């Protein structure tokens, strides 16, 4: 059995193993059919594996992957009473692994797969800010470091693959999953993808080299590293009308300029998850050009492609049978299923000649390659963590706090912030002021007791210990009925206070009374939720009586600081006009309360900048910043066409000035760029204020010339720097072929004739000519 020899290359081991496998064993390897939380039951001492789990292992003569063994949330119905504590997770992982290996004829281990969109969706886990807030940080280093912390946490529990949302763009914020996007910009998302992959995986895969022609020892996976599965591929945020899984009608140029760079940024990931949507009528799950040609052949991707939950079952009406759908998906490059029944029929499909044996073997080869690369054949079990789980949890809190702080964007400040702790009466009001789960976003597990009291209200009360801080709910998120008493109490409190901190926004919080589809998307409407998977809205207006509450409070003539806890931008023009300060805090995670309080007190200087444009009204959409510069009247008859706050906007407690944007090699030619050389730039940034601050320096380009209408601007670089008062910092950028090209009428990328480079108010123009 050569596949057990660690001195052989991964390819040699896989080929040997694959040659010995039966059809049933192969089909088992491409199936991820079970809901993992149903694989065990708590017993008087520890836990026991269920017949549900054992029967499926017997059916597949092994198991390809098991999703959500540790998932805990209202959909799974797993909580602190019936779930596995974080510190015991490694034991359950080993029990599952041991059973699968010992009931597989060839001893093939199983991949354990977990959700990690903003931290692990399991008991006792760390919940970070959701992506829409993290995008505001513009901090690649912090994104990578927190990804490394997530990987370490999951590895301690015995997890092998983490599902991370990072390929979606929010081009229509009515979409419920906007909170899972880093924002609207592909360059920003691609840069963060690189950071995510590096943080989770290190250097396990390099698209320039074939990992299967290395040994497992050559790969050198460290125990604290694991594979990351980036989702969703692709264009899911472009659904018509902001609908989840909606039709995506984009042309070739839009796809290649906006989404192809995202595919390239995922080239070193261990896995990619396909998206529910279609692209111009072709379902992503049967899009062979997307996965086999663009992703693998052109880009050099080597990992697996996973289906989204029950997505393959949606193909039956198109192709006529589950077997035919399975054949189409395998041929397109879907290597692993998720919960569907479609891939259970692969064996029957081969007998019917509607599934190709070669396509199945290719998928199994990829699955086994990943298992070998991760070291599962040589070291399948997880060792007891050397550091206690809680100790590791608290050691990560500092970076989680920093992530929350840098995710917040100051939209307005008329001198009221930072607040002084001088014995005043401060009213903290609003539906999101004292509700921890409203701070956490979708895909969130039940929280531990020591986290539940870290709300915005309790944190403000602690931070302003010399002041009289009191709370009133004011109203619900969306409920219209029985709100009068709430509002009356809030107004009464505000009348007796010196300042008002009003915490409005939305919520993705689920509860255990809700109903869900088979893929985990909520199917029943929670009265006080307005965001998350399958929660799309027609209007971006704040829900319920929130605006009425604001109007009542604004008439009191007291200083108002409005905080927005939310998973998407809302219509806030009226609020911004009447508030003295406005902060977009998004879903700031477990550390959101303390981070908000420190920002209000001036301990934290806000450094976030919007990664998504704020529309004045839903009727303006789309308002993303890189639309084409076509000759039209952008204003409406009844409304300006411009966004209320554009991408990249954000204020600070200090001031920054930009000086001396310099092109260091202005004589660079087109041929130089084609040959791989880069345009080198430098800008000087000065802190002209009184306090230390962090500044996200954003570089935009405007391409001119060529045969197509170019875009208004394109983000092509960003760096975050910390600068002390009266100090300067030189920030460098490098622009290459990818940053200065567009998709031409000839079907490839071509450099523009002229480039305008913009950083804040500074501009430089360079002609690339035809040389």
Automatic annotation (TrEMBL):
Keywords: Hydrolase. GO terms for molecular function: beta-glucosidase activity. Gene3D superfamilies: Glycoside hydrolase family 3 C-terminal domain (3.40.50.1700), Glycoside hydrolase, family 3, N-terminal domain (3.20.20.300), Immunoglobulins (2.60.40.10). It comes from the Bacteria. It holds the Pfam family Glyco_hydro_3. InterPro entries: Cellulose_Degrad_GH3, Fn3-like, GH, Glyco_hydro_3_C, Glyco_hydro_3_C_sf, Glyco_hydro_3_N, Glyco_hydro_3_N_sf, Ig-like_fold. One of its GO terms (biological process) is glucan catabolic process. The keyword Hydrolase applies. Residues 695-761 form the Fibronectin type III-like domain. This is Beta-glucosidase. It comes from Candidatus Enterococcus clewellii.
């Amino acid at each position: 059995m050569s596949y057990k020899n660690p001195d052989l290359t991964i390819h040699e081991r896989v080929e040997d193993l694959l040659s010995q496998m039966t059809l049933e064993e192969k089909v088992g390897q491409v199936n991820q059919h079970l809901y993992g939380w149903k694989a065990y039951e708590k017993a008087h001492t520890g836990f026991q594996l269920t017949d549900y789990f054992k029967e499926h292992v017997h059916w597949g003569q092994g198991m390809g992957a098991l999703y959500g063994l540790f998932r805990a949330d209202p959909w799974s119905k797993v909580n602190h009473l019936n779930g596995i504590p974080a510190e015991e997770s490694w034991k359950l992982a080993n029990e599952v692994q041991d059973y699968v290996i010992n009931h597989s004829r060839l001893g093939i281990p199983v991949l354990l797969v977990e959700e990690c969109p903003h931290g692990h969706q399991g008991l006792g886990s760390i919940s970070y800010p959701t992506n829409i807030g993290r995008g505001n940080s513009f901090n690649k280093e912090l994104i990578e470091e927190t990804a490394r912390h997530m990987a370490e946490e999951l590895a301690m529990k015995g997890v092998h693959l983490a599902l991370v949302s990072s390929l979606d763009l929010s081009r229509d914020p009515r979409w419920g999953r906007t909170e899972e996007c880093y924002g609207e910009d592909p360059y920003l998302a691609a840069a963060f993808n690189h950071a995510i992959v590096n943080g989770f995986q290190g250097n396990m895969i390099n698209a320039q080299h074939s990992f299967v022609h290395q040994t497992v020892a050559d790969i050198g996976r460290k125990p604290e590293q694991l594979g990351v599965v980036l989702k969703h591929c692709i264009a899911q945020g472009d659904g018509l009308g902001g609908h989840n899984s909606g039709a995506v009608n984009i042309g070739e140029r839009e796809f290649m300029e906006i989404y192809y760079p995202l595919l390239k940024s995922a080239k070193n990931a261990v896995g990619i998850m396909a998206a529910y949507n279609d692209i111009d009528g072709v379902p992503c799950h049967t899009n062979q050009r997307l996965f086999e040609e663009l992703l693998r052949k052109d880009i050099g991707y080597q990992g697996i492609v996973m289906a989204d939950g029950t997505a393959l079952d949606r193909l039956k009406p198109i192709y006529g049978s589950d077997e035919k759908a399975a054949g189409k998906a395998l041929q397109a490059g879907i290597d692993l299923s998720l919960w569907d029944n479609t891939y259970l029929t692969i064996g029957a499909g081969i007998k019917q000649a509607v599934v190709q044996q070669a396509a199945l073997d290719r998928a199994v080869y990829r699955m086994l390659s990943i298992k070998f690369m991760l070291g599962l054949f040589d070291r399948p079990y997880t060792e007891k963590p050397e550091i206690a789980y809680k100790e590791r949890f608290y050691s990560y809190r500092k970076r989680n706090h920093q992530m929350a702080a840098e995710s917040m964007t100051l939209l307005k400040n008329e001198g009221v912030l930072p607040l002084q702790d001088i014995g005043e009466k401060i009213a903290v009001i609003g539906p999101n002021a004292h509700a921890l789960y409203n701070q956490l976003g979708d895909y969130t597990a039940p929280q531990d007791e020591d986290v539940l009291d870290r709300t915005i209200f309790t944190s403000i009360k602690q931070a302003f210990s010399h002041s009289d801080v009191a709370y009133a709910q004011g109203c619900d998120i969306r409920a219209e009925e029985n709100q009068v008493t709430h509002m009356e109490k809030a107004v009464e409190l505000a009348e007796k206070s010196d300042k008002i901190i009003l915490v409005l926004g939305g919520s993705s919080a689920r509860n255990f009374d809700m109903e869900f589809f088979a893929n985990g998307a909520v199917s029943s409407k929670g009265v006080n939720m307005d965001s998350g998977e399958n929660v799309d809205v027609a209007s971006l207006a704040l829900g319920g009586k929130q605006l009425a509450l604001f109007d009542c409070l604004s008439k009191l003539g007291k200083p108002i600081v409005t905080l927005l806890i939310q998973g998407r931008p809302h219509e806030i023009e009226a609020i911004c006009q009447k508030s003295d300060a406005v902060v977009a805090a998004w879903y700031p995670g477990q550390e959101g309360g303390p981070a908000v309080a420190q920002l209000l007190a001036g301990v934290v200087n806000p450094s976030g900048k919007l990664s998504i444009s704020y529309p004045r009204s839903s009727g303006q959409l789309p308002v993303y910043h890189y639309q084409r510069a076509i000759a039209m009247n952008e204003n409406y008859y009844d409304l300006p066409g411009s966004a209320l706050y554009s991408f990249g906007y954000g204020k600070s407690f200090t001031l920054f000035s930009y000086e001396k944007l310099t092109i260091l090699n202005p004589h660079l030619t087109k041929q130089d760029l084609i040959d791989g050389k880069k345009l080198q730039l430098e800008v000087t940034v000065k802190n002209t204020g009184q306090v230390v601050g962090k500044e996200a320096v954003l570089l935009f380009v405007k391409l001119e010339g060529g045969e197509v209408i170019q875009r208004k601007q394109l983000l092509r670089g960003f760096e975050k720097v910390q600068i002390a008062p009266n100090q300067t910092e030189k920030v460098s950028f490098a622009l290459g072929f990818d940053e200065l090209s567009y998709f031409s009428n000839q079907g490839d990328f071509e450099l523009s004739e002229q480039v305008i480079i913009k950083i804040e108010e500074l501009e430089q123009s360079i002609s690339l000519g035809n040389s």
